[in-house]
Amino acid sequence: MAIEHAILVSLLERPGSGYELARRFERSIGYFWTATHQQIYRVLKRMENDGWVEALVVPQHGRPDKKQYSVADLGRAALTSWLHDPIEPETVRHDLAVKIRGAAFDDPSALIREVERHRQAHADRLAHYLAGEERDFGRRTDSGPYGPDDAERELQHAVLRGGIAYERMMIAWLDDVLATLHRFRDDHFRDDRFRADAPSADPSSADRAAR
Amino acid sequence: MAIEHAILVSLLERPGSGYELARRFERSIGYFWTATHQQIYRVLKRMENDGWVEALVVPQHGRPDKKQYSVADLGRAALTSWLHDPIEPETVRHDLAVKIRGAAFDDPSALIREVERHRQAHADRLAHYLAGEERDFGRRTDSGPYGPDDAERELQHAVLRGGIAYERMMIAWLDDVLATLHRFRDDHFRDDRFRADAPSADPSSADRAAR
DNA sequence: CCCCTCATGTAAGTGGTTACATGATTTA
DNA sequence: TAAATCATGTAACCACTTACATGAGGGG
């Protein structure tokens, strides 16, 4: 529904080839919208047919030619129209939340490891975002109202701050979940229904586990 | 990839018909996983064929018969196996973030209204979650280690706390975005390139907008 | 010599949405 | 009598992923 528009925004920020777009979708714009190169090439072709973008074949020495795409008037109009069209606040899909509720019907130990892995991934992403923020938006030199060229930067920064806030929220929440899972495992989980793969716990916890 | 598992968890929490599942996917489990009734019926049929769930036709007076689904052993095993399988931390899709970066190439006024709408929707959802929390998890009566039947509740509560944290984060971030957009509009956006649909602003702001 | 990067694509399959369809009962 | 709720489905389509395919050049 909107990968076209993400591509339009990215091409307005800077024209580029399908390959370059695919790389951007691994970082930057890809932090809040994913796309594989296969999908990008397909959509780009459709957008070219519809006159939304124009391709300029750029011969390169020692490398395959690339098609440099830029936004055409029709594409710009399509973007404007989309920007003015209200969209519904999207509903998230959280596999992990399903797993957490599912943990009530399973040994929580495996899920604790899984949640720890996710917590680590979010901490890594946060560090990555913060490094990018320092690099791209650190120590602003100006003061007073910013000029016309700063708007793009400012808005990119606002989006990045959203990513940072999201990762911080996730880390705090996963810590909360881990505490809940630990209580579940220590205080409640004690029968052997699910113990097929778990090595036997130490005797003290087995004692505590008396029904 | 996982709607089957969301259905399994929901049916383990309480058996029900496809219709009832569809209603649950509008609330509760639907807060972090959406599904329409069409999809649910289709998946449910496949799950029945695979022996993951069992259907019991319940005749009702004055209403159409319903198929009461419950989880079979094979389904339970499939869920356990999925719970033990690591999943990648999912990448979010945020249309709104694309729009915000796109706002650099358009009149920000329309986007301000859009962001305000989204802020309102998230505030509403937060209020809804908080009411549900009070209703379902308010004033816990027990103290000390909770019993075996509380695990399901505790984990549901942990997931709900995640929803609450998410909405709070979004509201704070959208306030941040609104501040950025207002600065953009007031300090920077002043030429008439995009003014096709915007009624002329008041003279004082037009004065400030002198290049 | 093998792998990585650059560069572009096709084909097949899965997952999910939207539109259409039916029909009885309860509530306003 | 019109609309909403309960209840189940089919069909067509669109979005997206995964696997496969090619080929040149550079670095270890």
Question: Could you describe the 3D structure shown?
Answer:
Two copies of one chain form a homodimer. In chain A, α2 (18-24) crosses α3 (37-49) and α6 runs antiparallel to α7. In chain A, a hairpin with a 7-residue loop joins β1 and β2 (66-71). Residues 195-211 of chain A have low confidence and may be disordered. Chain A is mainly alpha-helical. The first copy, chain A, folds into two domains: 3-84, Winged helix-like DNA-binding domain superfamily/Winged helix DNA-binding domain (Arc Repressor Mutant, subunit A, Orthogonal Bundle); 95-208. Chain A has a two-stranded antiparallel sheet with strand order 1-2. Chain A has helices spanning 3-13, 18-24, 37-49, 73-84, 95-102, 108-137, 150-188, 203-208; strands at residues 53-58, 66-71. Chains A and B meet through α1, α4, α5, α6 and α7 of A and α1, α4, α5, α6 and α7 of B. The structure holds a DNA duplex (28 and 28 nucleotides). Chains A, B: This is PadR family transcriptional regulator. Chains A, B: Residues 7-80 form the Transcription regulator PadR N-terminal domain. Chains A, B: It holds the Pfam family PadR. Chains A, B: Residues 92-181 form the Transcription regulator PadR C-terminal domain.
SS strand fraction of chain A: 5-15%
Mean pLDDT of chain A: 86
Name the overall outline of chain A. elongated
Largest interface (CB within 8 Å) is between: A-B, 80 and 80 residues
H/E topology pattern of chain A: HHHEEHHHHH
Structural class of chain A: mainly alpha
**Separation of the first and last Cα atoms of chain A:** 54 Å
Strand order of the largest sheet of chain A: 1-2
Please tell me how large the radius of gyration of chain A is.
Answer: 24 Å
In terms of per-residue confidence, which ranges of chain A show pLDDT below 50 for 5 or more consecutive residues? 195-211
> How many individual helices of chain A?
8
The number of strands of chain A is: 2
Query: Biggest β-sheet of chain A, characterized?
Result: 2 strands, antiparallel
What is the number of independent domains of chain A?
Answer: 2
Helix content of chain A: 55-70%
User: What is the subunit arrangement here?
Assistant: homodimer
